[in-house]
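Record 1 of the preview.
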Amino acid sequence: MAAASFASREELKKARDLEEARKAGTIPAERDEEGKEINPHIPQYISKAPWYLNQSHPGLKHQRQQAKTPGEISDIKKGLIQGSVTTKFRKGACTNCGAMTHNAKACVERPRKIGAKFTGQDFKPDEYIVVPERDFDGKRDRWAGYDTSEYTKVISRWQDVEEERKLKKAEDFERTAHDNGNESAKKKKTKKPKKDGDSDSDSDSDAESSADEEFAERDTANNAPVAGYDPRTKTTIRNLRIREDTAKYLLNLDLNSAHYDPKSRSMRENPLPHLKPDEQVFKGDNYVKFSGEVKDMGELQLFAWEAEHKGEAVDPLALPSQAELMFKQFRDKKESLKSVQREQLLSKYGGEEHLQQPEEIKFAQTESYVEYARDGRVLRGLERAAVRSKYEEDVYPQNHKSVWGSYWREGRWGFACCHQFVRNSYCTGEAGKQAAESITAMTIDSLNHSNQSDEGALADAREEEANKKKKESALKKDATPWGHDLETAEIDPKKLKKALKKEEHRKHHAEETDERKRKFNSLSSGSTDVTAEEMEAYRLKRSHMEDPMRNMKS
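->
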């Protein structure tokens, strides 16, 4: 922003009150050139632009990434200009090679005994000389004009080095294993025979362990550690991962998923709680803290605290074996006291048969942990299964003996105790069943009587319909679409000859004349009835498409 002009005390006070009002939210926030609101809580050293940018309006435009100018383009042409090369020396050109873009002192060509200025031969083309207009940062950019494809050579070189390192590591491992085998064989040959009961397994194990330690030290010295203790830096490296494994924060990209702390590289909660337990590759750092032997160590520490409170000196850190033994004795004694107390209660009050597990639920157990509250709510574990039916079960309203829906007839549901189809009706028992049966019998009788009275009318209607169908079938047999039955009709030979000539004339003129030039009412004149002779002539003269010789002239 440009240098601010002088402001009086009243103007400064108004600006300060305006800024406080914007921070309180009583008035709208200030907007920049693009119409975006400016956060009033942003400090002035961030919101104000430097004086050399000449920014007249407030805003955060100077904080955003600016668009590149044409002078900042890195892919600048380099090398020689392609095309025709001059054949005559030009004034001001290099006397050695003849190019106009440099002089003889800056020429990179081999110095000639006689320069191109005097020989007039072998002129070199000019080079690309581009002077881009860069800004303040562009002039000081170390990588301006750098070709990024050159870096592929560096990557390939390091890949070759890595492959060679792996091969060398494998050779060292094979050599070490071979040397260890030879040493163990020599020791067995030179060793004196021992008495029965003696064993040389200790010496062999010591030799193998020393060889392994030596190889491990060599491997640690050659390669950077993945995790653990680094002997070169004398520091402990925590929470590192193998590079091939997926990072914790990439397992679930949901913003509401488990929190990841980048400083300690820890994710305490489970990032994949929606997956099955066998499909979860990472269950959180807290899962590691509360799994395995961690729970046993916590119980041991709790036992030590309680024992110290009662006057018994138990220290699991100073004397771990003693603490473990005392804790084991305490648990055994506790279990024996529980069993004795249980036997006393059963002998006094009985009820041992209720403690036996029924056979039908023996194989219906589950390992899922569910913790309930006193009112039946699920506090921890699996949720309660949803009720499959929306109706209450085993409810008998209005003095009924059966539930609603226990009786069905003719697409309706009812009660089986009284055969009623109204849900809020009162139960009538056997009387209701008899009444329903009598109503059904009366309905069937009335239907039978009405059916008998309608049988005569139905018979008359069926007879009329049969007569109508007979007439229609007779008409169809007697007539064809052209008004004649060609199979039974008598054909006159003279009329057939005339019809054949007429059909030949019609086909000949139909090929010569254009159908599009026919008048609108040309077919209205004359009779449109087709005689049997004309139909026979058409059948004789028509072309059969399946005939292979239909196009051959007779």
